[in-house]
Amino acid sequence: MKLSKRQEAIAHIVRENGPVTGSAIAEHLDVTRSALRSDLAVLTMIGVLEARPNVGYYYVGLSPKNQTAEILRSYSVHDALSQAVIVSPETNLYNTIVTMFTEDVGTILVCEDSYLQGVVSRKDLLRASMGQTDPHTMPISMIMTPVSKLIVVEPSDSLAVAAQKMIDYEVDCLPVVVREDDESQDNPKRRLKVVGRVSKTTVTKAFLECSTQEV
Predict the structure, then answer these.
(1) CATH code of domain 5-61
(2) This prediction's pTM
(3) Which residues are within 8 A (CB) of 165 and not within 5 positions of it... i.e. 6 or more apart?
(4) All CATH 3.10.580.10 domain ranges in the chain, comma separated
(5) 215 residues of the chain, pLDDT tens digit each
(6) In this protein, which residues make up the domain named CBS (predicted)?
């Protein structure tokens, strides 16, 4: 949670002058006491300030644990996305398998003109390759999970939200998309333009980077 400018000003006043009453803070900022009620409640709730009856507010500051949590919440998917490995719907099963192993990824996105059509995983490819179909003739669109069933994230989403989705849906990778839905009544479409991917590995790297920052 990012503090507002007024909340930062309140924290500064209490840090420099505490203990200080709410009325004194309001006077310093030239506002009414009631105008500060919500800001003081937020600062107390997240542990920046501590309120003591008949005394006023003390500055506590964020603990290392809370600071780390704040840093984690500040990461967006955009900060950790990596380049997606993509094939077209017409790519055959054999070439898709080759692409997966040469690129060393566990998930491949199926796209047409950069728009998401589906996803295939290692399990999908293994299951299909064990069948009777010729892998050189089967298009990957026949075995992909279609876009209508996919879980995606957008660049502005919190990285923590992306991590939670991967846990909840038991997937290793999520497509990162920009929505360009066609709202026309004649031909409504869910158009998702792929801008990258985020995986458990990229999330882990971001969280590790966060843990090594000074708090």
Answers:
(1) 1.10.10.10
(2) 0.66
(3) 151, 153, 171, 174
(4) 77-211
(5) 567 889 989 999 999 998 999 999 999 999 998 889 888 988 887 778 999 888 899 998 765 555 555 666 678 899 888 999 999 999 999 999 999 999 999 999 999 999 999 999 999 999 998 878 899 999 999 999 999 999 999 999 988 888 889 988 989 999 999 998 665 555 556 789 999 999 988 888 877 776 665 44
(6) 80-138, 144-214
Q: Which among 36, 66, 65 has a CA at the least distance from the CA of 51?
A: 36
Architecture of the domain made up of 77-211: Roll (3.10)
Interacting residues of 53 by C-beta distance below 8 A, sequence separation 6+: none
Q: How many Cα atoms within 13 Å fall on the side-chain side of residue 106? A: 9
CA–CA distance, 32 with 99 (Å, rounded to integer): 64
Amino acid at site 139: P
Do the beta carbons of residue 117 and residue 144 sit within 8 Å? Answer: yes
Ramachandran quadrant class, 213 (left: phi over 0; alpha: psi -120 to 50; beta: rest): beta
